[in-house]
Amino acid sequence: MFDAVRNNPKFVQIFLLVISLPFALFGIDSYFRDGGGSKEVAARVGSVDIVNQQVEYASREQENVLREQMGDSFDRAILDTPEFRASVLDRLINETAIKTTIRQSKMIVPDSMVQDYIKSRPEFQENGQFSLSLYDSVISTQGKTRDGFQQQVREGLAQNQLLAPIVQSAVTPQATAARWIALDNEERTISEFVFDAKNFLAEVKLPADAAKKYYESNPSLFKTPEQVKLEYTVMSVADIAKQIQVSDEDARNWYNENIKTFEQAEERRASHILVQVDAKAKPEVKAAARKKAEELLAKVKASPAKFALIAKESSDDKASAEKGGDLGFFARGAMVKSFEDAAFTLKDKEISGLVESEFGYHIIMLTDVRGGKTKSFEEVKAEALDNARKQAAAKRFAELADQFGNLVYEQPDSLKPAAEKFSLKLIQTDWLPRNALPAGVLQNLKLQAALFSAESLSTRRNTEAVDVGDGQLAAARVLEFKPASVKPFEQVSAEVETVVKNEEAAKIAKARGEEALSKLKAGDVLATAPAWSASRTVKRSNQDLTPAARVAVFSAKTDKLPAFQGVTRDQGYVIYRIESVNTPKLADDVAKLKSISERYAMALGEEDLRAYISGVRARLGVKITPPKK
């Protein structure tokens, strides 16, 4: 009952819906406004250009998101497709269209709103409080400065102001939600008749030049990706710290400077009895509640040892009443103010008078106190030594960083002088696919943007020294570069022939399947192998059905059963026989109806949002540059 007021959950959901993806991209153009790199235009939105380097950067960031979400199931092949690049470019176009609209509408997001949003984010909090050091650490690992991140948040909040009302405007009647639930719970019993392409391979007769023609028509399927050999070196606070010795005096100085860190906040444990009454209740209701509380206070004052028993029998706070009124330990800020003020003035085992809060009248007994003291230097000596070492390393790192950056810039044709001067490892790689660099500093997006700029690839010069987060400064250089190329036909001829044969077999399978489907719908019975599968019951939520199969099965007319539907798949064709339909009768469930209504409204809101963005794109005008072949 002492929880802080929660935010409206529906608004939070909408807010996340609106800003989650764009926040991942907002602000990335800052890397490209004045920097080097390819200025080839991928698309133009109104008068704003989106360059290829932005698309590459956004693609790498999206790859990182997918890797984190999918874990071991991540398959990088999905990124090496025109469709993936087109989807990333489409998102950038949407973002640019939205940002242009925000600028044109002269929307303003005050600094206070930006600061409140940042302070509210859990990833920047320690023990429920905003931590500036944690904030700096988190954004630095993302390669961002405070100003850059705040601008990104500002743009995202402005976007929310523009788009959230559109998403929120959709409303779904509960009757529509009830129909949705009924459809979602509908069950259909089906069996399958599969025409597998491999069963028709023997029928495929290819012309002599079929494989060659396919190869020439689909060169992108037989490409080797761009490859690079790199060298790079990293200066880090952690490595410098290993070389630094600190004394007990250094540790004590650090302890004295940071002594507040070791102050243990006082926590108190209390039990209470609550006579609950609404703060807005009528005077006579409040008077009756107060009279009851005064009677209970008299009882516990007369028999303090029976406090727990009286709380269990009489307190309106049922959760704590079961424990004799015990609320456990709490620090300042955890309870409502009037309760807290009273609890922190009591002595051990002392019982308060009546304490009024927004919940009613409390009788409080203090049962324990802990904390409220500062740990001595001896208690935290090991920690102080470690932090003094880190502090000295950070200072030394700051002193060397400029020297490192200058040397990398002044001797641009090799990283060896910098590595030798600062005793750093110079790491050289073998050939690597440019779009699949190993984990570590080479995954930093800002370093990649510098490393693969047109200038860096053509001159083979060092990148600038880049802050890659976690107290690390890195510089890299392209040693050798192989552009993407199509494998010679002779090298892949067998592979091409197999692909063409499979495609032709799939066409035959589809034709036979469609022929069989026509016969079934005319009332014939299939007698040829393969046989119908065993019957099974499916719902619209079944994930073992492909999206196309779900649409086919659940869109089939069922006034006459069995009904038949056919679906093309990668390796053939499938006929689904719908044998029976069952729509379970559902009990009235107001909570579920409300939940479904809200979710459905959100889905409609998303559609409204897509329509709005489509309209903005049409108004501004979008021109996409065809990709080079």
Question: How many beta strands in the DSSP annotation?
Answer: 20
Query: Structural class, judged by helices and strands?
Result: alpha+beta
**What name does the CATH topology of the largest domain carry?**
Triger factor/SurA peptide-binding fold
* CATH H level, superfamily name of the largest domain: Porin chaperone SurA, peptide-binding domain
Range of strand content: 15-25%
**Please, how many domains?**
4
Poorly predicted tracts of residues: 1-38
Profile the largest sheet: 5 strands, antiparallel
The CATH architecture assignment of the largest domain turns out to be Orthogonal Bundle
- Our count of helices gives 21
Report Rg. 34 Å
Which percent range fits the helix content? Answer: 40-55%
End-to-end Cα distance:
65 Å
Mean pLDDT: 84
Q: Provide the CATH top-level class of the largest domain.
A: Mainly Alpha
Which shape, going by the Cα principal axes? flat
Q: Keywords, please?
A:
48% helix, 20 strands, alpha+beta, Triger factor/SurA peptide-binding fold, single chain, 629 residues, 5-stranded antiparallel beta sheet, 4-stranded antiparallel beta sheet
Description:
It is a single chain. The chain has 21 helices and 20 strands. It has four domains: 184 residues, Porin chaperone SurA, peptide-binding domain (Triger factor/SurA peptide-binding fold); 133 residues, no CATH class; 113 residues; 107 residues, Chitinase A, domain 3, CATH 3.10.50. The N terminus is likely disordered. Strand 18 and strand 19 form a beta hairpin. With 629 residues, it is α+β, with helices and mostly antiparallel strands. Strands 7, 12, 13, 14 and 15 form a five-stranded antiparallel β-sheet that branches. Strands 17-5-19-18 form a four-stranded antiparallel β-sheet, sandwiched between helices.
